[in-house]
Amino acid sequence: MKIEHYIAQLLYRYQCVTVPGFGAFLTEIQSAQWVESANSFYPPKKLISFNANVKNNDGLLANHIAQAEKTSYDYAVSAIQFEVLNWKKLLEENNTLSIKNIGEISLNANNNLIFTPAEQTNYLTSSFGLSAFVSPLMKREQFEQKLEAIEESKVIALHTEDRKSNSYLKYAAIFILGLGLTTSVGYSVYQNQIASETLLVETAVQKQVQNKIQEATFFIKTPIPAVTLSVKETKMSYHVMAGAFRDERNAEKIFKRLSDLGYKAKRIPQNKYGLYPVLYGSYATLAEAAKAKKEIKEKENPDAWLLIQPL
Q1: Count of beta carbons in the 10 Å neighbourhood of residue 132
Q2: Beta strand pairing status for 238-245 and 276-283?
Q3: Which residue of 66, 82, 124, 266 has the smallest Cβ count within 10 Å?
Q4: From CA 81, how far away is CA 76, in angstroms rounded?
């Protein structure tokens, strides 16, 4: 079974996808970028990284494979273990492992795993339909040179008329001047009449408005209902697990012990496998949960593991 297909599906929905016995693929959102030197735009995306120290089975990948393949949880876990063995064998033989649409893992001189993410797939669903593009550089100097050439090519030609037409032009100018004076005088009289009538109308309207305002009385017949603001509760999707117990009495015993130690312990209802999970506490971010898990593993329980699931 090729599990990389199911890992890619989960990377669209979760920040962390753990491959039991191998490592975890983590995602971080990167904002849109504009590279001025290359005139390139890159949309927002999820950056994928790899942590070889997170190997505990959180059940996310196995449950997803079991549901997709319509098989049992135990079979899905066995399929993951078999695929992990093949990956490790390829790394030993070729010093490199290519995981389709996710990235490439290689061994360095110190036998440490080096992860190089694939660039062709963007796992940020809100960026669907957006792709990187390069904007061509606009050369303004060429445009300005063309504009100057067009302006220089325009020539204004002045044509002189025959002197014989001067007498006719003289009488025509006198006639037009007289007509203009008559028109301007008549127009000014007409404008004064319009302004006077407009002032009378505006005065009457203002008087009616003032009377209406003085006579108006306002009543509020129906009171405005009170507005209730609800505060949205922060989802705690990251949990540090203490264990899952077949006997409910053992689960209750561990829950009380953790509560007495000062942890914000919780009990989760019995899961479909008949187990009663108990957790140290729940956190809003992956960073807070990882920090708490590290402290718990150092001081309290080396087998504590991280569960990423909305409860």
Answers
A1: 14
A2: antiparallel
A3: 82
A4: 9
